[in-house]
Please model this.
Amino acid sequence: MSTKLVTGHLVLAALILPLLACTACEKSPKAETSPTNPSDTTPAVVPVADGPVDTTPLPNVDVSKLDPDKQKLFYKLVGTLSSPCGKAHSLRTSFTTDQSCRRAPFAVRYVEMLLGDDAGEDDVIKAYTAKYKPSGPTQKFDVSKAPHAGPEDAPIRFVEFFDYGCPHCKAFKPMMDQVLKDESGKVVTYYLMFPLEQLHHDSRSAAAAVLAANAQGKFEQMHEMLFDRAPAHDHASVSGYAKDLGLDMAKFEKDYDAMNAQVTADEKQGETANVDSTPTLYFNDRKYDGPFAVKYLEAWIEEELAVNR
Model:
């Protein structure tokens, strides 16, 4: 499997299988490269002696919904995946004996969820490694001018790079909307523009239009309209949407022209962070490499709130 496929996004819950399929709008094909630091991509596993898998049930962990083969794989994985807290022992050991590792119960649940969605052993290891042994740096983005949903002081911060012409961004929108509703008060999402003009000719026009609408307090309405009416995003079309929303058209047109600079600034932030597809999501300053489905996003949120309370 290529690096691009391994790191590609999941957008629709129905596309969780295979878990690491690439379902994003790609800016350009990525060349295969060798990692500069092999430890960055080493699977998060610990060596164990050959022998029968320890299937001793974990306290308060119900795996009865998994079929017998998946249950055996579950116990194999919790015995071989490394501690989610960076300890030199297995996930099972962290869960059963290391009370200081507050991530362990969530990590066990993550493995069970992935197996329940028919992820194979290699896919679970890759997903677990991406979550608990992240190789990329944290990213601080300037979101001072970005439209956002949710309170700015929320403990969980998402930053989404997206393109209104990208069908995968459109598919992801209701998922993020649901997360914002379910986790109201706990989450803020900032929206940064990343128009893939070589794929979607008028995506820059859409980005300028939503920023111009945001200047009149109508981001949410224009955001919805641009996805609903994609790919009709040329200047005449977005001006029509502005009229439908009752915007001050003189101000809208002036802002529409002026917002090109902000769109370019958002693009540059993404390029600096090596964003090359949409949607690309950051979770508390780290790239989100989990499945793009509501239950996984909310599981990550629940874990982060619990371990940092």
Notes: The chain is about 45% helix and 10% strand. Strands lie at 25-26, 148-149, 156-162, 187-193, 277-278, 280-283, 286-287.
